[in-house]
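Good morning,

Attaching, inline, the backbone tokens for the sequence recovery test we're adding to the shared suite. The designed sequence is right after.
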């Protein structure tokens, strides 16, 4: 959606003042959103505006209930300076995480506080766009129950797997459309009547780590998302890199096994066929049906057909040797793949996230052993491997961040242009 539409629509911010005054306020609010809290001196330096102008803006925004004092900053020998930040609940965004077999939703405010509980609904991601109506209905129900002031809802942020071109607002793997001229982003915008940010789930995970997680303050890091598939988020020079079409990081579909199993992408022997949640479930099912000695064999026939990574991890935690072996194989294959990434990108940090990463040592130990085998010593010694600390819903933070970034950037582009 064009930024002009955003500016001309009803805005939470006051538009009755001069355009220049409004521009200063938007710049100030965007800066406070990004840094969380800042002193008058820090604001003056960051925005290149005078102290009187800054104090005037802060006074007006405080009166209008957009900002508040956030304690005191560090003293340089005199009185500690007041810190200012955006007031919680000033703005909201709806975050939707569409996975292969479920949908998660939450409304977050501008300080990334969950304004509603995270709602998870069983839902199968379809190839065509029939599923859009269902997702929209779930979202409407959540919005109606939230009780938030909808005039302060600035947009919708949607993350999903597949080849997502966030520049064009299209997914070439799921929710595809044969009708030309209407992208997936536009289809969602018509439903919500709000600006929509569409992004790949791994990019959202990487943004969450960069702005709120273990990659905060890092310049070069890799974020591996190991769920049903395998995805890579690339952080270089302090930014999440998208690639020419937004398709960077399709690590799961690099050739890995000669004459290997057929991958759903159409190629044989992709890394994802031996190092993903789908691969783990397939190997577990085959082993159980062939008579492997495992507590997994106690599962019912229906449970075996629908086995997931969490079940194998639980079995490993109970000491099941077959489950431990399966996870070890996944870790070894991932470690070999990561070795290539380390030598290509020379990262200072590699963050593991997703359902399979929750296996912890059952994955990381064989992974590290494979890295030691396949990666050059001088390069691997610079890269630390850690597990994400944001939790299983961490990428929703990345979706919220993308939505607020888009909102402020769109306003500024219009006002400055």
């Amino acid at each position: 959606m064009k930024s002009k539409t955003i500016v001309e629509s009803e805005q939470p911010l006051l538009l009755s003042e001069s355009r220049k005054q409004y521009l200063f306020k938007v710049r100030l609010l965007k800066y406070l959103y990004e840094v969380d809290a800042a002193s008058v001196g820090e604001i003056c330096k960051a925005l290149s505006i005078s102290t009187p102008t800054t104090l005037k803006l802060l006074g007006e925004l405080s009166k209008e209930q957009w900002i508040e004092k956030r304690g005191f900053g560090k003293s340089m020998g005199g009185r500690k300076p007041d810190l200012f930040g955006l007031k919680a609940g000033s703005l909201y965004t709806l975050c939707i995480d569409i996975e292969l077999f479920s949908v998660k939703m939450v409304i977050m405010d501008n300080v990334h506080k969950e304004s509603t509980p995270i709602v998870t609904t069983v839902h199968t991601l379809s190839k065509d766009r029939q599923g859009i109506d269902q997702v929209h209905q779930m979202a409407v129900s959540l919005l109606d129950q939230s009780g938030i002031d909808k005039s302060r809802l600035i947009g919708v942020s949607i993350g999903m797997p597949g080849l997502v071109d966030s520049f064009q607002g299209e997914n070439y793997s799921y929710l595809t459309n044969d009708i030309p001229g209407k992208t997936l982003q536009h289809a969602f915008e018509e439903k919500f009547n709000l600006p929509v940010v569409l992004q790949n789930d791994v990019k959202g995970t990487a943004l969450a780590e960069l702005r709120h997680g273990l990659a905060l303050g890092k310049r070069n890091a890799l974020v591996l998302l190991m769920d049903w598939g395998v995805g890579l988020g690339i952080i270089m020079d302090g930014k999440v890199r998208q690639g020419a079409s937004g398709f960077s990081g399709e690590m799961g579909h690099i050739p890995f096994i000669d004459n290997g199993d057929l991958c759903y992408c159409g190629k044989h022997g992709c890394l994802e066929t031996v190092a993903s949640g789908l691969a783990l479930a397939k190997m577990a099912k085959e082993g159980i049906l062939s008579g492997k000695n495992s507590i997994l064999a106690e599962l019912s026939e229906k449970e075996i057909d629908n086995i997931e990574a969490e079940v194998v991890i639980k079995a490993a935690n109970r000491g099941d040797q077959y489950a431990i072996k399966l996870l070890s194989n996944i870790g070894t294959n991932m470690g070999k793949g990561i070795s290539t990434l380390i030598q290509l990108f020379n990262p200072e940090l590699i963050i593991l996230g997703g359902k399979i990463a929750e296996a912890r040592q059952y994955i990381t130990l064989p992974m590290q052993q494979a890295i030691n085998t396949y990666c050059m010593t001088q390069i691997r010694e610079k890269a630390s491997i850690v597990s994400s600390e944001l939790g299983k819903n961490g990428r929703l933070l990345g979706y919220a961040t993308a939505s607020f970034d888009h909102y402020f950037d769109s306003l500024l582009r219009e006002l400055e242009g």
